[in-house]
Design brief:
This protein is an alpha+beta fold. It contains nine helices and 16 strands. The strands form three sheets. A six-stranded antiparallel β-sheet has the order 6-5-16-13-8-9. Strands 12-11-10-7-14-15 form a six-stranded antiparallel β-sheet, covered by helices on one side. It has a four-stranded parallel β-sheet with strand order 2-1-3-4, with helices on both faces. The two termini are 18 Å apart.
Length: 318
Amino acid sequence: MQGPFFWPRRPAFFHNTTSGPLWRKATHLRWRKWFEKTFSGGHYVPVSRPEEWPQALKTIQAFRPDTLFVGGGDGTIHHLLQLHMLPDCPVAMAPLGTANVLSYHLRGKRDFSFYSHRNPLSPVSVRLGESSGRFFLLMAGIGFDGRAAQKVNPRTKRLFGSLAYPLAASATFVYGPGAPVSLSFQRNGVEVEARQSSWAVLRRFPFYFPPFPAHERTGIPDHAFQLDLFTGKNRRDLVFFFLGAALGKSGNFWRRESVRTEKLSIKEGVAGQMDGESTFFLPNSLSVSSRSITLLFSEQGLRRTGLPMSTEPGSKEV
């Protein structure tokens, strides 16, 4: 559900000071100064180690903010979800991580400029995905990108930034797509299908990264995922898929088939990723959770993600 536009008055800033590559330290400082200058009644909470996070959230909860700014990347918000972060507080992202995919979706652009013009933001409630008690927001990947995520380590991200991801994918590519995984799902709520795929992705947002089309829009379905199944059996097929996707073409070898589904069952254990963070899926199911998070979208972000614009009257402040 989408609410009227507004601008925060009493926000808190959960700042993961160790996120992102080494050369982004100056950007961290600029965000802190921007927050303290813009919100005289705000509450700034820096954290540098994971063990500090639970206490930081308690401090923020006691402050009772109207908005939670999260300084970090997709991994930061993913790990906060596991701590049951302030369920009723809308979240805005300060893009201080490595890839910052969520920030791009919320703001609708790659230019990570400050919120300096106080452009109003629109709260949108988004249901989370879940598997074995672990929650995800953007996407979960099974197979190929799960094996690639295992090759991404914090030191590589600190040194190489977002380049760490294509490096990991290239290293995984050497060994091909991997063994197919047995999956079952209900297509559009009608019938159960059993399939095998070396790479499957469950997502709530449009794709952001190549070789998938940047213009693709899915909106955010309330009770379902977009399931992408990738066909193909060997490295040759994978080469044709990446080349074809980069050129906007489809071929007869490795293709992507997309369906809507509420639940995906995995028949055997397999490497995976949630919001870019490496995990291992046991024989289990991935489904849409009853838990939700409220995200603050800019007007540009609503257009980018394919969400309808709010028609309710709103103002820059509430």
